[in-house]
Amino acid sequence: MCGRYVSPEEAEIERFWHIGRQNNNPFGRRFNVSPTSIIPILRLDHSTAELEFATARWGLIPAWWKEPKPPRTTHNARSEEAAAKPMWKGPLAKSRCLIPAVGWYEWKQIERTDPASGEIKQVKQPHFFYLPDDQLCTFAGVMAMWKPAHDDQWQASCAILTRDAVGPAAAVHDRMPVLLSKDSENAWLDGKITDAAQAIAAALENGVTQVQHHPVSRRVNIASNDDESLIQPLNIDS
Q1: Averaged confidence pLDDT in the chain
Q2: FRET label pair with 54: which of 19, 158, 210, 237, CA 20 to 30 Å apart?
């Protein structure tokens, strides 16, 4: 799964993906992005065939959704089943996007000794995952537009495609985001590919799996904590 991640500032995104400056309420770097947040995404402007910066709610709301409240736990789409499920099939076929990131967090269950009682307890230790050389990375994303009842404004929302963890990530958690290689970003956004299963298969085949990670402070467990110290390495033996 991917329930928290680090988002680049808008200027970093514009430089890395060679996008013209927007100068519209620019996003700063965020170190603890949680579901339902408004996040930066990149989508293809089909009229110009160029990437464009946009924002969306992290937690997909399909266009056909009729309930007054958004669906829950739709921030991740499992790659193994997404192509067949109504929640994801349409967005995967017609509305794929890129979700820029600095890295993400996953939790590993470990044993720790309580210093007060000496009792051994099971705790979840967060780890921060990132690419070598601290490069920006891209999650394979899907998006949708939804208009609530009694509201004329369409709302953009998105989700991150996930997979079984492979490579170094598997030592910490059984799931990870689908990371796109730079060469596979255009294929993921290609509007001529409308078969959801085909799009997923290509993303997995060309996915990035060689990542680095280290344990970090459990302060990341609290969504309101949002500062650079969250990604600093933690000596869990101290």
Answers
A1: 92
A2: 210
